[in-house]
Every structure is written in C-alpha cells, then in structure tokens.
Queue: 2 jobs
Job 1
Amino acid sequence: MLTVFGSVALDTIRTPKKTLKNVLGGAATFASIAASHFTKTGLIAVIGNDFPKKNYNTLSKYVDLEGLTRLNGKTFRYDGKYDKTLSTRQTLKTELNVLENFKPTVPDKYRKSRFVYLANNDPDQNIAIIKEFNDVRFSMCDTIEFWIQTKRNSVIKMIKSVDAIVINDEEAKLITKENNLIKSAKKMMEWGAQYVIIKKGEHGALFFFQDIIFPTTAFSLENIVDPTGAGDSFAGGMIGYLAKMNKTNLSTIKRSIIFGNVLGSFAVEKYGLNGVIHVNDL
Ligand code: AMP
C-alpha cells in the first residue's frame, strides 16, 4: 500500500483564459489521485468544516480517506496566478488555516505502508509523520518556495529523513543556494537523500543516484491550459508505479520517472484536477 500525506486545498487558480475559484486542489490531492491509477492509496490530510461534500465525494472515488481529518476552521487555501506563457506562477496568497499546527496521526491500517510520499507540506509535520510508519521501503518528499523561505532548516532535516527528494529546478537552486543543478543535487545527497529527482517542467526531469545522472524528457504537448499540480502528479505517478511493482531497484526507479513525466503531462492538459482524474489504460 502507498500512503500520501500533504495538503488538501481549496485553490484559486488564475490562468490567462480562465480563473478557477476555490476548486479542489492541494499537493496531496493531485499526488494521491495520480498514484491511485497504479495502486491502492491512502490519504492523510486535514480539511476544515467549509470543505464541500462534492469535493469529499471526488476524493473518495479514488483514494482511501480513513486518514482524512476534519477540523473546525477553514481549509488550507492557495491562490496563484500564471503569466501569459503559463511558465511562471506568482503566489498571491497562502492561507494555512487548519493546516497550521495540525498534528497528523497514521491510521493503523496505513502503518505498514511500504511506500510513503510526503507531498508538499509543512516540513515539521512531514518529519514527525514518517517516524510513525513501521516498515517503509521507499519514502519520498517534495517542497515549495513557501516552506524554503519560512522553514529552511526543517526542509533540510526533512530531506535527511527520506530516501528521495523530488523538487523543481528553481526550488532546488533556492534550497541549496547553488546555480547548477548537478551541484544542487550533490548537495541534497550530502544532506542525506539517496535519490534526487529535479523536475524541469516541460523539459522533463533529472534523476540522480550516486554518480549516475538519468535525464528524461516530458511528454510534449501542443495545448497546455493549467500547469497546477503537474509536479504533484509527477510524484504521485512515480511512487504509485513503484508501489504497484513493489520494487525499488534502479531500473524500476528509472521507469517510474518516465511514468511520472506521463502523469504530469495529463495534469496540464485540463483545468484543475480534470487532467489527472481522466487517465485510462496505464
Ligand atoms: P504544483 O503546481 O505542483 O506546485 O502544486 C500546486 C498545489 O500545491 C496546489 O493545488 C496548492 O494547493 C498546493 N500548495 C501551494 N502552496 C503550498 C504550500 N505552501 N504547502 C502545501 N501545499 C501547497
């Protein structure tokens, strides 16, 4: 079984052609739905009492929700705006709400998960929760500028506490204070990550392990409408495939990165979650 922990959000996403207001999003949402195309996936996350029933129903179609906690207060909210080329996103607002000070617990049935993905989330919560699993074979985390700016030391500790980090190129440079991605990956390996995957958006991803560098391309698309969640879908696809194969040898990891690229490409083709939901025949 795979467990995914991270943000479930109500997102406002402003693209040049369309604005989506308070739609279901969050790093763990994209990642767990992407992973669910490969394997049984449990979600650990928190929502507020404003979380719409229809969003709960959507999640419940794809993932196990025993780990989803509802607290009094507002759901985590994110507001971001893309430039006209859809290549840069400016964060307008990050409201942690019930996510702040959340003390996650792992349901008994998730404790034996061999595969755990700590999606973009508070690094201190990620560090705490990974210790609650008894038999992890492969753990992976992600992070974003917000946490690097607010909790850099905790992000570095989180990288130490997992097997793999998946991170986008700009954030890899930001956390390591390096301008070169190879130097950046080496630094994250020195901090304790065995595997480093650096996502480069439409240019694919670089995988690093010991002295190996394995570059992959993204699946090229002519029409991209909303890049939100591409990175999370990449990670979910990748670890979902590993969990399905129940293997962590090098060639399976390399293949999982190809699946990650494919799931990322599904995510950007449609608005919100629609791309990653409507995937057939994997
Ligand atoms: P991505 O496009 O892969 O960066 O992921 C976008 C998703 O990450 C959105 O659905 C947001 O709700 C979520 N998100 C944005 N900022 C944060 C944050 N600081 N912590 C956790 N999740 C976040």
Note: The pocket of adenosine monophosphate is lined by residues 7, 9, 11, 25-27, 78, 94, 120-121, 144, 146-147, 228-232 (CB under 6 Å).
Job 2
Amino acid sequence: MECPPDRLPLVRHWGSDLGPLDEEAARAVCLIGERSGRLSGELDARPPSLVPEAWTGWTGRPGLVGSRNGRDWSPRFSGVSVRIGGTEAPSYTEAGAAGLEVAADDAEGLLRLTLTVEMLASGLLRVRAGLVNGGGTYDLQELSVALPVPTHAAELIDFSGRWGMERQAQRLEFAVGAHVRENRRGRTGLDSAYLLHATEPGSDFVGGETWAVHVAWSGNHRHVAEHDSTGIRLLSGGEHLLPGELRLAEGEGYTGPWVYASYGDGLDRVAHRFHSHLRSRPGHVSPRRPVTLNTWEAVYFDHDEKRLLELARLAAEVGVERFVLDDGWFGGRRHSRAGLGDWTVSPDAWPHGLQPLVNAVLEHGMEFGLWVEPEMVNLDSDLARAHPEWITAARSELPVEQRNQHVLDLSLPDCYEAVRRQLLAILDEYPISFLKWDHNRDHVEAGVRPRGGVPGVHARTAAAYRLLAEVRAAHPGLEIESCAAGGGRVDLGILEHTDRVWVSDVSDPLERQRLLRWTGQLLPTELMGSHIASPRSHTTSRTHDLSFRGATALFGHLGVEWDLGATTPEDRAELAAWITLYKEYRELIHTGTLWRGPDPGEGIWSQGVVAGDGTKGLYSLTSLTWCPTGAPPSARLRGLDAHRRYRVRPLTVGSPAAGFSAPAWWDEQGVVVPGSALARVGLPVPVMHPEQTVLVLAERVD
Ligand code: GLA
C-alpha cells in the first residue's frame, strides 16, 4: 500500500507473495500503471484509492456518495494519518499480518473518513470504511471500498440462485462497464453474488490467478466489478443504502461492513484462506460436530407427541446426537399462515408442553434443538394483532407477502424487547443447545411504520445481529444455525453470530453435490448443514440410493432429514453405518483442507479433504451422468505430499454403488502409490451408473 499524506491510500499490489521487497522495488511495483494524461483527450488522472474519489480524475463509480442537500458531494480527503498496531506508521515498512488504521479529513466538506485495513494470519485481507459527519445533516448514500486487479484478471465469476438452487456459478467476461450485483432483499439472498472473483480466463479449482471480494453483511449490499475505458479494473463492495436511510446529524458516524478479499492460484486456494480464517476464530465449532436430525421433512407441521417421541427413539438408535424440532411447535402455527411472532409452546400441538419430548431426547443422550424465526410475523398472530405498527411497510399498504408472512421491525426498541423476551423465556424454560434461526422472506418496501415508512433495513440488520449476540451471551454454548428458506443468509456477517448454515432446502444429493461444492468457496465443511434425506427427494422427486445420499452428505456437518418412522430396519442399519463412518472421519473432514477437482471429465466429479499434516486424505468420486465413453477416466487426487507414499483403498458402506465395476487397483488391501503419481496421473475411476459416489481413503505409509 502507498499512503501519501495528501490523499487516501492506494493498494499497489495484493495477491501472490512477492518475497521481501526493498523500498525502491516496492515503489516500482504497481498493479495499475500510471496514467497521467499522456494521450491528448485524457484526464490528468491518478490511480483510484481504496475509496475512489472524483478529484483524482476517476470517472467511474465513486466510493463515497452523499451530500448536504446537493452540496459537499465530491470529497477530497487529505491530512491522512496512518497507524499500524496503534503506533504511527514509519515511512516504509513490511508488516506482514497487521492492521492499518487510516484517518483522513475533507476539511471543506467537514467529513472524516476512517479506513481499517487488516492483513489476517489466514492471508485474507479485510477492509472497512467509516465516515463521521462534521457539520449539518449529511445524507449518506454509499460508502464502498475498492481494490484494483490487474489486466489479466479478464474474467469474472460470481453466483446467482433461487430457492433450492442457491450458489449457481456464473462466468462472464470482465468487459468495460460495471458488473453490479445489488441486493435489496434485506437478507443476503438466495441469489446472492456471494463472492465476486476476477480471474485469469479459464481458471478453475486447480489454477489461474484469482482475486475475490465478499461483503460481510446480511442486509442490503453491493458487489461491483468495474472496468473503465482507461483499463483500470476494480472489485468493490459495501452496504447498499436506501434513499434517506442514513441521514447523519452533525457528529454522527457510520461504519460500513467488512469487505473481505482473498487471492489464490485457483479457486481452491481462494477458498482456503476463508476456511482458515473461519477456523481461526476463537469460538469456532469443534470438529466433532454432533450428528443432527431435523424434523422438518419427517413431519412438517404435524406435531404429534407420540410420533415425535418415536422419531427421537429411532434417531438415537441410528446414532444421532442432536434432535432438532422444526417449525410448528408454537402459537397458532399449524400451517404457514399463522403463528409467527408468538413464541410460546402451542397447547394444541403440545398439550403437555415440550417437556416430554425434551426429556426423551436428553434421556437418549442427544441434545435438543429448536426452530425459530424471530424476525418475522404472520398477520394471523397475537403479536400482529396487538402491534400492527411493528410490521414493516413503506406505504399505507403492506408489502407483497412471501410465504404468508411479513418482516417485524426489530429496529423499534419495544418490538425488539418483546421478541427478545419471548426467545429468552423459551431458552430459559428448556435445555436447548441449538437454534435453527430462520428468515424466510425478503424485506421489500421495508419501512419503519411509526416513522412514516422511512427505510429501516440497515437498522434492522444491526438489530438482528444484536439480538443474536444477546441470545448467545445469555446462553453460552448455544449453537445457532443461519437458515433463510435454505441458504438465503450465508455471509461472514451472520457467521460472526452463528455456527453453521442450512445450505439449501434441497437435500437431493445430485443438487447437493453442486451446492456443497460452491458453498464451500466461502465456508469450510463443518459450517455447512448437510443432511441425508428420504430416498425420494421431497423437493425434486428424484430417487437416489442411500450410498449416494450418504457419501454426498458426508462432506458437510452431517445430519438426517428423513422420516425414520417410515424406514425399514435395513434402511436404518445402513444409515447407522453412514453415521458411524462420519463419526470416524469427522475430525479429518472438519479440519482438513478441501481440494475440489480436477474433475476427470466424462461426467465425473472428484474432491477430497486432506489432513493438515498430509497423513491422510478422504476423497469422493461422483458420477453425475452416464459416462459417454463407457471407460471412465482416471481421477487425480490432490493435496497429498508429493514426496511420500500412500496406501489408497476404497471405503464402502452398505451396498455398492449401482452399476459398479471395479478397476484393477480397487482392493480392500489397497494399493501403495507415491503422492506425486496420485496428483499427476491418478487412479482409474470405477464404472458406475449415474448419480453414484464412491469413497477412497489415502493413508501415508512412510
Ligand atoms: C424454511 C427452512 C426449512 C424449514 C421451514 C420451516 O423453509 O429452510 O428447512 O425449517 O422453513 O417452515
């Protein structure tokens, strides 16, 4: 970074490790070349800083947008002070993992900008900008931070999605113009951009220089890739503010969300930095993740005590360690049209309260978990009837409905308090170890009714974080899952307050292969809820063998989403074997490094997790379709130590994959092969029918 005293800092390089640089070399290196009006007809411009400003001649999107009634809209920040680890920065230093605090003033515009730039031990970079208003009312519309990427980052990869099909990767040319992913859903979104990458064309999991940004915010937000006609390419991000949402009075300030940035040669290495960052957090989950059963697809709203007691018994029998009672236990919630907002146990559904079920769950040696959706309300609820003003709306009419529900305004202190009290009461009453915290609708036209409908998404997002933090502080050890109609709230903001995400409402393993693969671009396996569901998927109606369902779910935090009451003893025995396998390998799966691909082709996907010390790796080889050539290719096993030898053997549970035909090396004793050969040539994949997975274990022998 270059931090001149008279302008905001510039990032000269981020990405590959350049080794030690002396001052002269550091001054020469720059991702963006100088471009100072050398050609007639060009502005005498300077490269944009972390918060691009128009005064430098930048004609692209400014980092700060706002004004005082049309004045003070074009800032020039100078008088820059830079501190590293609390002390004034020397004129030249190499700091490694460190934090930089920057403060700068726009004396004319009466604004102070702060920037925190942190290089984390994981190698992630994160930046956050703040603004303090020094006079009059300042209407803040946008505060984003931008990072330059080089010209050869000529392709973009980000994500889209919908319910049940979250995180569909899209690739496009990084052409001149702006690729703007603006979210106005008030939650991260089933279609969220998730991570915006700029990459060398043709990059994949294995290779290709790749830069990525991620906005750690669960409300409205924006990711932008911008390429201007002078050749500058920026990746930027920040919160998306609605009109008039943040009017800063004199002395008031705003701090934007962290914008995370990662780099790697190949998408895997970009992901690894996020994984090691998340794993380095002090409260990160234990790799011995408890096998979870969630009742949703087993019983839906049919909360019958006898049936659920039987489900709990069967769950314990197959090895489940956490039993989660999903939607339907409270208020008038016998269907999705009523009850949200009334967080007391329904005497209709549970005449004896939840105690008999909770007791049974605990007696079976399992933890008890409960579903809640505290930010939402049905019109048919006691809460909505008593406080219609707590329902968000921008006009006199209510916003369009989604799943028969509306958004509660947690930014209103009384509303917040009412929800908080109900949540704490239920947590005090029952020994609850886990909350599945859902958020099933978008915030559209989400105004604050008692304040004439002014936008309130920013305040509501902050309130949701506060509520999560308060609940956790009151119940240390409580785990919380972030669910939003499946994977609609997956970001590093919510993960500061939660312990896993529900990846998707679709547990069909064919869809889950893709969902886990791409959700893993940000999250390590232990944070992705991954359940074995019934043979015929409730969402897609496809039918799959348990071997495919089990081997797919294994690469996440394993659970069950299946009506065990409708299973045969043989089904349960095989399910129990999968659970046993997970328990045996969960520490490897949840601490190892994830390597996706290279996909051998012919409809086969491969992936693996390799222990940090390189002693073993667990791989899956999945046939998505018929192999068009009839002769499956070889799969290269990545991540092992090239200089050591490994015994590679199949791991089989229950019946073999359908249409299975073993290659010569497929043997219980395994075959001993050097890591270098496994990585470069690999081993032939067995012949399998479509939609089958086999597992392979590689263990170091020397
Ligand atoms: C959402 C969740 C599901 C389930 C239902 C309950 O759709 O994603 O897993 O909890 O709500 O209503």
Note: The chain is about 20% helix and 30% strand.
